[in-house]
């Protein structure tokens, strides 16, 4: 039977992101089906699954379980508009123009079909670009190896027509907020790998977020991405957010701050960087030192928004760059109290607002 090459390529490229890594496992493969003019590709692992559907022209039925990378490599070299696939037992013959090859497949019955939960609750509709940005700006923060499972994922909150994404690894915490209409107020912790998968899928336009007791689904007209949720309660991060009215507040030009952190941390072997805030001269001095006593230092100016106390504090330079390297705001607000207490950075851009808390390095 003839299959449109473009649609088949897209089906394979999307679904191959959710297979297992063990070759002996049937889930190392994807299930490819054609029936009633519809192409369906499915993949799953122990955390995520993807279903991709596309209407195609032509008649006939096909059901195969095949290694996606092998098929993707073949399709990569095909330029014809359509490709012919004929199945004989556990082998398929692929032909496009003068090119022809035979590929082994598995019995489709080996694929463990999972029944979709029909009791999904719709949480909201959101622009795919915004959802992806929420994930991109938090997915770097969770501790993927933490024994406390709630610290290994991203905490999503949907209430008061806002969406918040929060992640932490005990040493730092990132909280990102956007305004968005909500149909059902809820909260959940999504697996880090599930969030990463959503961010990799080429979603466009608006997507629906739906939830069951144990899973969350992101749906478009032709893609359904599902991830398991982490059971447990995310820590009450509001207790560690700093209040501007009771803290020192300065404002820093973001790009200057980023470049100064990069330059001044060049000699740091353990990523330690010392920030010295001089309120009188409105100078922020950044410095690092290695075991040989060699020093790297840089200075930038800042605006005093509401600071009364100087500060000398040690922070992880990589942690700083993880945050300011992800955002594009013109300025960053630094909120602090003492050298022993956490420091909070705030920033806003377009529809997004950020709060980033870092624990200081105390010797």
Give an overview of the whole structure:
The chain has 363 residues and is an alpha+beta fold. It has 3 domains: 2-110, DNA Polymerase III, subunit A, domain 2 (DNA Polymerase III, Chain A, domain 2), CATH 3.10.150.10; 121-238, DNA Polymerase III, subunit A, domain 2 (DNA Polymerase III, Chain A, domain 2); 241-358, DNA Polymerase III, subunit A, domain 2 (DNA Polymerase III, Chain A, domain 2, Roll), CATH 3.10.150.10. It is 16% helix and 43% strand. It is built from 6 helices and 24 strands. It has helices at residues 5-15, 68-76, 128-136, 192-200, 254-264, 317-324, and strands at 2-4, 30-35, 38-44, 48-55, 62-66, 82-88, 91-96, 99-104, 121-127, 153-159, 162-168, 172-179, 186-191, 206-211, 215-219, 223-228, 248-253, 272-278, 283-289, 295-304, 311-316, 331-336, 343-349, 352-358. Strands 13-10-11-12-24-23-22-17-20-19-18-21 form a 12-stranded antiparallel β-sheet. Strand 10 (153-159) and strand 11 (162-168) form a beta hairpin. Helix 1 (5-15) packs antiparallel against helix 2, helix 3 crosses helix 4 (192-200) and helix 5 runs antiparallel to helix 6 (317-324). The radius of gyration is 25 Å and the shape is elongated. It starts with a strand and ends in a 5-residue tail after the last strand. The model has no long low-confidence stretch (mean pLDDT 94).
CATH topology (level 3) name of the largest domain: DNA Polymerase III, Chain A, domain 2
Helix content: 10-25%
β-strand amount: 35-45%
- Number of separate helices: 6
Q: How many structurally independent domains? A: 3
CATH architecture of the largest domain: Roll
Structural class: alpha+beta
Sheet with most strands: strand arrangement: 13-10-11-12-24-23-22-17-20-19-18-21
| Mean pLDDT across every amino acid position | 94
Distance between the termini: 69 Å
Characterize the largest beta sheet: strand count, sense, and whether it forms a barrel.
12 strands, antiparallel
Shape: elongated
Instruction: Let me know the CATH homologous superfamily of the largest domain.
Output: DNA Polymerase III, subunit A, domain 2
Rounded Rg: 25 Å
CATH class of the largest domain: Alpha Beta
- How many strands? 24
| H/E element order | EHEEEEHEEEEHEEEEHEEEEHEEEEHEEE
Uncertain parts: none
